[in-house]
TrEMBL record:
Matches recorded under InterPro entries: AB_hydrolase_1, AB_hydrolase_fold, Pept_S33_TAP-like_C, Serine_prot/Carboxylest_S33
Family statement drawn from the similarity comment of this UniProt entry: Belongs to the peptidase S33 family.
Signal peptide: 1-28
Annotated source species: Actinoplanes italicus
Sequence ranges assigned to domain Peptidase S33 tripeptidyl aminopeptidase-like C-terminal in this UniProt record: 387-482
Residues of the AB hydrolase-1 domain: 91-244
Listed name of the protein: Alpha/beta hydrolase family protein
Entry-linked SUPFAM superfamilies: alpha/beta-Hydrolases (SSF53474)
Length: 511
């Protein structure tokens, strides 16, 4: 079973374009204080199948920004030039989330992922963050990845000790295969990389659209370089100030709330396969069978965490809910849902998360107390599998938290910023967006009153507000809400946004 392990909000078209990872080569760093050389844009790798008009380039940045003379990492970039050069506003840097999402592939898909209002006026630039995809991807031993994934839900002190040992062994393989970069993929370093890109393209200020984990990059850029931002939209926000208990709490409530939205929708939608079954009762029965070891598919016992991982992915996008109901019916009858079949696991995710958040709990009793607290909050789904694997996957992380969590230190130099979150988002809880808005006095917080991850592709209302802001820097009125959109047909969602541009799963493998 694949472990859910990435915080993506990428159009499915982008996911299809995720290219093969190409390790870079370390070179001498730029002299301290010297501006980076201009990026030389040229043809993209034809094996990636890049669209017409997209050009690619590279930029070398220090592995360790505190040692500018040291080794460098090569960042891969792609640019879709503005289709109306006479009315060009400037560059729009984009990031699709993860950690692990490919900004290069996002740029490849930009002509379809973004409205003409954006593609006409901006040079859209995506980059693969350090350690991801084409930018010196972090590789780890596949057997060690599988061994660690099997231990993320310990049920005893002995199993907790095995988890800690497996985590340390996995990280060592990452270091052996990928070198010291594994220690330097924190989000603050990525934000500094992004400013090097700004300098290399010769711009005084940039516009930015980041979704999901991409909001963390934007937040840290805003903190470090407030006067170098023209406009910034952060969609489906993470919150770097979260403690272990609050991180787990809001993620768990987001999982439970999103799932209850699905079951309520199914009960009122005649075409849902669980409509006549009672969706919530059916799921509760599946979960009880999984807990008892009685949920078996092709001779394999399905654990509760397997069931939760299956459900989790479908909660990103209501357009997939017809399929979720079908998969649960299939699972209950002994069939094998497509998402329970093994897939590769991205390897650049945990080094970022373990560098950015304090997840160490130290002892099994402390972990068990957290688990019991989540179970009380969410009587049906029990916990959020992504948040839980963030926590357990970072136990015994050897390199420390190099980018410690904190409330943003907002500067008066920041321009108006637009934040957007869905009311029910299984990956980035609504409360994170509200908390972040309280840390950014210049921010306007837009609420999408529906379900899912990535408001730009879920809501025509949110999409229009984001487009208007990025072009005109005009924010919606404070307290603006966009109405929820629910699917009525299994063939397509009724969002009014062309498909296949639905947000992808943050658990999809990349890199």
């Amino acid at each position: 079973m694949r472990r859910t392990s990435a915080r993506f909000a990428v159009p499915t078209l982008v996911l299809a374009l995720l290219g093969p990872a190409m390790p870079g080569v370390a070179h001498a760093a730029q002299p301290a204080g010297k501006a980076p050389d201009p990026i030389s844009w040229g043809p993209c790798d034809p094996e990636d199948g890049p669209p017409d008009r997209v050009v690619c380039g590279e930029l070398e940045v220090p592995v360790d920004w505190s040692r500018p003379h040291g080794p460098t990492v090569t960042l891969a970039l792609a640019k879709l030039p503005a289709t109306d050069p006479a009315r060009r506003i400037g560059p729009l840097l984009i990031n699709p989330g993860g950690p692990g999402g490919s900004g290069v592939s996002f740029a490849y898909a930009a002509s379809e992922a973004f409205s003409p209002a954006i593609t006409d006026r901006f040079d859209i630039i995506g980059f693969d963050p350090r350690g991801q995809a084409r930018s010196n991807v972090i590789n780890c031993d596949g057997d060690a990845v599988a061994a660690q994934a099997a231990k993320l839900y310990p049920h005893s002190k002995a199993e907790f000790a095995e988890l800690r040992a497996a985590n340390r062994a996995l990280v060592q393989t990452c270091r052996d295969l990928s070198g010291p970069l594994v220690k330097y993929v924190d989000t603050a370093s990525v934000a500094r990389d992004m400013d090097a890109i700004r300098a290399a393209i010769g711009e005084r200020r940039i516009s930015y659209y980041g979704v999901s984990y991409g909001t963390m990059i934007g937040q840290q850029y805003a903190e470090l370089f407030p006067d170098r931002i023209r406009a910034m939209t952060l969609d489906s926000n993470m919150d770097h100030s979260q403690s272990i208990p609050s991180y787990q709490k809001w993620e768990t409530l987001a999982m439970e709330g999103s799932f209850l939205q699905f079951t309520a929708w199914c009960d009122r939608t005649g075409e849902c396969a669980l409509h006549d079954e009672g969706a919530l009762a059916y799921f509760d029965d599946l979960y009880a069978r999984a807990e008892a070891g009685e949920l078996v598919v092709n001779g394999n016992v399905i654990k509760p965490e397997d069931l939760l991982n299956l459900v989790f992915g479908y909660l990103y996008e209501p357009a997939s809910w017809f399929q979720l109901a079908d998969e649960l019916i299939l699972l209950g009858s002994g069939g094998e849902p497509a998402r329970l079949r093994g897939e590769p696991v991205p390897n650049g995710y945990l080094p970022v998360m373990c560098s950015d958040f304090r997840f160490e709990v130290g002892t099994y009793p402390a972990l068990r107390a957290l688990e019991k607290a989540q179970n009380r909050l969410a009587p049906h789904t029990r916990l959020n599998p992504l948040a839980w694997s963030d926590l357990t996957g970072c136990q015994n992380w050897p390199y420390g938290v190099t980018n410690p969590p904190h409330r943003l230190r907002a500067s008066a130099k920041l321009p108006p910023i637009l934040l957007a979150n869905s009311r029910w988002d299984v990956a980035t809880p609504y409360e994170w967006g509200r908390t972040l808005a309280g840390q950014l006095p210049s921010a306007t917080f837009l609420t999408y009153d529906g379900v899912g991850h990535g408001t730009y592709w879920l809501s025509p209302c949110a999409r229009a507000a984001i487009d208007t802001y990025l072009v005109d820097r005009s924010t919606p009125a404070k307290g603006t809400h966009c109405p929820a959109v629910f699917p009525t047909s299994p063939l397509r969602a009724q969002s009014g946004i062309p498909y296949p541009l639905v947000p992808g799963l943050r658990g999809v493998s990349a890199g």
